[in-house]
Amino acid sequence: MRPQGIATQPMASLTQLGVFLAAVALVVTGAGPPARAEAAMVYHIKGAASESNVAAAREAVDKIRLALKQSGDEGRPARIYVSGIFVLDAPIDFSSENSGSLLSARANSKAVFLSHGATPGTIVVHGGRDFRVNGIIIRNSTRNGIYVEGATDVSITNITVEDTVSTEWSQGAIHLTGTVRGALVKNNRIINSDYAGIIFDTTEQSDVSNVRILSNFLKDTCRVVKDCGSIYVNDRGRRSKGIIISGNTIEGFGTKISDGSGIYLDDWTSNAVVKGNSITGPGQYAFHIHGGRDNVIRENTIFLADIFAAVHYIRATDGSRADMTGNVMAQNIFRIGKEDDDVHFSEDYRSGLGRLIFSKNWLCRRTICVDLK
What is the pLDDT of residue 353? Predict the structure, then answer.
């Protein structure tokens, strides 16, 4: 890591922007050669005090846009700390020229972004790397709350996304698409999403290696659009490694017949570790594996009372079950309340070529647990 020094910014130009440059800070990218290591431009922007003051809430959004424009023009990352209410008719856009930038709620403050039809999302990132979004609240988004396309090493942490209106596939509260290697989605709360809660989708040229989806809380996702995952990942490029989905809590992902899944590894997703998650219905499948290989699903707890089937395990449309080697389900706990309930699997998953390797999973009825074998 090779810092290039600290720069200062004349106050006059910032006065024209209507924002206050409070300080400068050194930004150095994460693992690997740094994309850049310049002095960051730091802004503190205050939104409206209440939702009723729409004019002030829109004016505050304009200040964020102007800060990003200045950051891009000068080739320096921005650190933007926000508080108050912000109203958006169009998204806040981060571009590759803003690489290394941060949008964060100020410490001990609430920052609420209210979307009035902004598409493709409330916060949008196109290209670049090392973007961070932290601590904000996003409500009433159309299609996507946060939408990231083709940006690597993005960090989305400690945010709340509520009431995301989606009408079709490839939409969600937090949506990353294309090559988004190294993304971190951690400690977020997602409430009421018509399609996915957290979604990574790809093309044949994409790479989602080293994506980490950690310790998120998702409630009432997959409410409208079918064939959905509360946490959804696909890998149509068939090249990704190091995907980790761990420590998440999922509560409600459709109905028993709506084709919704708690965790959905779609379209060749492989080399994923799905560990230590808690899944509660209602919904159709706790886990859905579609064509991938070398996935490990272990130490998860599934409450099956309102879930139709524990696992849906099928070949990809352009593949065969023989391709699905090395998939393991081990040391998971399936909990059932009623004595006459049972664990349902949607098809014979444990025999033949490409079978699911099943080891030391437990079925627990109240306080009694037996090895499913």
Answer: 82
Return the bridge partners of 84, or none.
Answer: 111
Instruction: Choose among 178, 171, 298, 177: nearest CA to 244.
Output: 298
Residues with Cβ within 8 Å of residue 131, at least 6 apart in sequence: 94, 98, 99, 100, 101, 102, 125, 148, 151, 154, 155
Give the integer Cα–Cα distance in Å for 305 and 313: 20
Question: CA torsion, points 232, 198, 36, 83, in degrees to nearest 10?
Answer: 180
Other residues' Cβ atoms within 10 Å of the Cβ of residue 11: 9
Backbone φ, ψ for residue 253 (5° rounding)? -150, 60
- The rounded distance, in Å, linking the Cα atoms of 128 and 353 is 42
Give, in degrees to the nearest 5, the angle at Cα 78 between 72 and 82. 130
CA atoms of 129 and 325, how far apart (whole Å): 34
**Structure confidence by residue, pLDDT tens digits, 137-154:** 999 999 999 999 999 999
Do β-strands 20-26 and 39-46 pair in parallel, antiparallel, or remain unpaired?
antiparallel
Q: Whole-angstrom distance between the N-terminal and C-terminal Cα of the chain?
A: 51
Q: Are 334 and 343 in contact (CB under 8 A)?
A: yes
- pTM here is 0.89
Burial (Cβ within 10 Å: 0-12, 13-18, ≥19) of residue 363? buried
Name the token pair of 28: 């150095």
Q: Which residues of the chain have pLDDT under 70?
A: 1-38, 338-348
Tokens at residue 192, please? 């009421």
Question: How many C-beta neighbours within 10 Å does residue 220 have?
Answer: 18
Question: Do residues 364 and 335 make contact, with C-beta atoms less than 8 angstroms apart?
Answer: yes
Task: With beta carbons less than 8 A apart as the criterion, state whether 263 and 277 touch.
Answer: yes
Q: Which two tokens stand for residue 233?
A: 């990942």
Encoded tokens for 275: 């560990």
Phi/psi of residue 97, nearest 5 degrees? -65, -15
**CA Rg value for the chain:** 22
Q: What is the pLDDT of residue 347?
A: 56
Distance CA 174, CA 133 (A): 11
b vs e for 189-207, b when ≥16 Cβ sit within 10 Å of the residue's Cβ?
Answer: bbbbbbbbbbbbbbeeebb
| Residues with Cβ within 8 Å of residue 271, at least 6 apart in sequence | 240, 241, 242, 243, 293, 294, 295
